[in-house]
Automatic annotation (TrEMBL):
It comes from the Eukaryota. This is Protein kinase domain-containing protein. PANTHER family: SERINE/THREONINE-PROTEIN KINASE. The keyword ATP-binding applies. It comes from Alexandrium andersonii. Keywords: ATP-binding, Kinase, Nucleotide-binding, Serine/threonine-protein kinase, Transferase. Belongs to the protein kinase superfamily. The keyword rRNA-binding does not apply. Gene3D superfamilies: Transferase(Phosphotransferase) domain 1. Residues 23-218 form the Protein kinase domain. ATP binds at K56. GO terms for molecular function: ATP binding; protein serine/threonine kinase activity. It holds the Pfam family Pkinase.
Amino acid sequence: ERPARRYRDGPVCKRPGCVWDAYERLQEIGTGTFGKAYLCRHRLSLEDRAVKAVKKVRTRVSEKDTMREAAMLQRLDHPHVVRLFGWHEDAARLYLVMEVLQGGTLQGALVDLQKRTLAQREEWSRKVMRQVIEAMSYCHSLRVIHKDLKDENVMLLHRDTHFQNPFAVIIDLGAAETSSMHAMGGQQQTQVAGTPATMAPEVWNDHVGPKSDVWSAG
C-alpha cells in the first residue's frame, strides 16, 4: 500500500479547473445523502486522495455545511484531524479533496475489539482516546468546536489488524462552529446540531462550548 503524504505542502484553497482533470477515479468508497466519496489518484504526483463529491441541488443545507466544513478544515492542520488539501466546484457539485483514511470507522473497529483480551481492549482504547483528546485540544485552541463527536466521526488512518498501534483521525466538521474568546471558558448561543445520543445536555438548550465536545467524546 502507498499512503498519501500526511502533511500539506501548499495553501488550502479552491482549485481551478475540473477535479477529474486533476484526479483519476479509482473506486467509490462511500455514499450518502450528501453524494459520493471516491478513492482517487492525482494524475501528476500519483498521490492517493479521497474526493468527497457533494450535490448542490439536494438541499441548500448540505451545500452550506460542506462549505463550513471546508472553511474549518482550511484552518486546521493536525495529525489527528482529517486534512483537506483543497476543493473544486462546478455547477452541480462541490468536491473536497482530502487525505485517505483506510482503517474504517472507530465504530466498526470497536466491534472487532470486543474479541480481544480485557488488557488489550483497555490499552488500545486508551491510545485512541488520547489521540482524540489531543485533536480536540488543538481544535479548541483555535476556538473550533466540533459539535458532533462520536465513534462514527472518528476514523483510523490504517487497518490495525492486531490492535496494537491505532492512529485515530477526527472527521466530519460540517456542524462545527467557531467559538468567541469569551465563550471558550463557558458556553455560547448556538444552533442545535449533532447526534441526539451523544449531544451534551446544554446543546439541547442552544448552548455549546469546549465542554460539549468533552461530553460527546466521553
